[in-house]
Design a protein that fits this description.
0% strand; 203 residues
Length: 203
């Protein structure tokens, strides 16, 4: 219900205002980093990004400023004008984060928010592997999908030739990913819809 959501948002703002009145700026910042919605959202977004303290703080401050203006609680209860204003602000937020992190680290930050990367990363972690292995598999996925697209659009191949090449690519891709993740990591990753993109390569 929109009214309930608005009331909750107002209650949170009132609580923050009260806390600012009794805590020092550093104490209030520490509180925000532990309990604020912005910090919780950001922690979920940076899994696999592995930010250092300066990077986390830079993105947090930008994110917190955005969330105080456009509360995530208000999603779905916006007017068209509010939605357009938020979308414009989101675009600026993304640009500001890119400026703050630099292009290379911003690429890492964006990748960490991709659902496909998150599944690879979780599987790697459960197999006691690191972010580097997850990134390697994610890059393999992107390259394999690009090559599959080229083969599918190649008019010089017969249907039989195309299917044969795609089947070989599927087997090679699966084997390469197993090589990076190991049996344990592959077992964790090869669940649900995670590997649908591999199974779909020669269909």
């Amino acid at each position: 219900d929109g009214a309930d959501t608005e009331a909750m948002g107002k209650a949170m703002k009132d609580m923050e205002t009260a806390l600012k009145g009794v805590l020092t700026p550093q104490e209030y910042l520490d509180y925000q980093l532990r309990f604020s919605m912005s910090a919780n959202i950001l922690r979920n977004q940076v899994t696999g990004f592995d930010p250092n303290e300066a990077e986390f703080m830079a993105v947090f401050k930008l994110r917190e400023s955005f969330d105080s203006e456009y509360s995530p609680l208000m999603r779905g209860n916006e007017t068209d004008e509010q939605r357009k204003s938020r979308e414009a602000a989101e675009k600026k937020l993304k640009e500001d984060i890119k400026t703050s992190l630099g292009p290379d680290r911003f690429t890492d930050y964006e990748r960490a928010q991709d659902w496909n990367f998150q599944q690879i990363y979780r599987a790697a972690k459960k197999a006691d592997l690191d972010t580097a292995e997850a990134v390697k598999v994610y890059d393999m996925k992107k390259i394999a999908e690009q090559e599959v697209s080229k083969v599918r659009n190649n008019k010089d191949l017969t249907t039989e030739q195309r299917n044969q090449v795609l089947q070989q690519m599927q087997q090679q891709t699966e084997s390469s990913i197993k090589g990076v993740l190991g049996e344990k990591g592959w077992d964790q990753y090869n669940r649900g819809n995670n590997t649908f993109w591999i199974k779909n390569m020669h269909r």
